[in-house]
Amino acid sequence: MYIPKHFEEPRLDAMLALIRRYPLSTLVANAPGGLNADHIPLHWIGDSAAPYGTLRGHLARANPLASERLPEGEVLAIFQAENAYISPSWYAGKQESGKVVPTWNYATVHAYGFMRLIDDAEWIRAELAALTDAQEAGLPHPWTLSDAPADFVEQLFGQVVGVEIVVSRLLGKWKVSQNQPPANRDGVVRGLAEAGHAKLAALVAAGAG
């Protein structure tokens, strides 16, 4: 990923916060037929043996990522936060010189690591519970695995395979108008807020993650 210095987000806590808040990853692997990309929720956990932690999730058994024998090598999980088009009309510079162009603002984390498949019902049960509990937290009536009939849940366990990725490196890119002068950034914050992108406006206002 191309990361100009002013868009680099090296802080581990900021990158992990994005992963936790936006767990739906684009998981990219080199499969026998070429690159394979799929959209998989991944749950980050701390791991004393891995400085960048571990990502866990599950795949349908029918998914080629689970059913094909993947060549050895890194996989890439991409996590994407808010993003939006940035209009030149929001820049103060439009009135001053007219030398402005459109762009796109976003925040993303790329997590690299080595993936292994886990065909163990108890491991899958624990991971499904952890992923579900994290997403249900804060809801007025959180759902848990025990809310579903036990035989139904057991049947589902047979249809999926666990996934674990020990993260070897993380790259964070927060492209949130850091390269613009203050007056232009203020205009972007107002424009995004008016367009309904409050979370991205807050990122621009903060200047980073």
Q: SSE layout and pairings?
A:
Layout: H1 12-21, E1 24-31, E2 34-41, E3 43-47, E4 50-60, H2 64-67, E5 75-86, H3 93-96, E6 103-118, H4 121-136, H5 150-157, E7 160-175, H6 182-194, H7 198-206
Antiparallel strand pairs: 1-2, 1-5, 3-4, 4-7, 5-6, 6-7
Query: What's the number of structural domains?
Result: 1
Helix-strand makeup class: alpha+beta
CATH superfamily, please? Electron Transport, Fmn-binding Protein, Chain A
What is the terminal separation in angstroms? 18 Å
Radius of gyration of CA atoms, rounded to a whole number = 20 Å
Tally the beta strands.
7
> What is the overall shape?
elongated
Strand content: 35-45%
How would you describe what is shown here?
The structure is a single chain. With 209 residues, the chain is an alpha+beta fold. It is built from 7 helices and 7 strands, in the order αββββαβαβααβαα. A 7-stranded antiparallel beta sheet has the order 2-1-5-6-7-4-3. A hairpin with a 2-residue loop joins β3 (43-47) and β4. α6 packs antiparallel against α7.
What is the compact description of this entry?
This protein is α+β, with helices and mostly antiparallel strands and 209 residues long.
Keywords:
Pnp Oxidase, Chain A, 7-stranded antiparallel sheet, single chain, alpha+beta
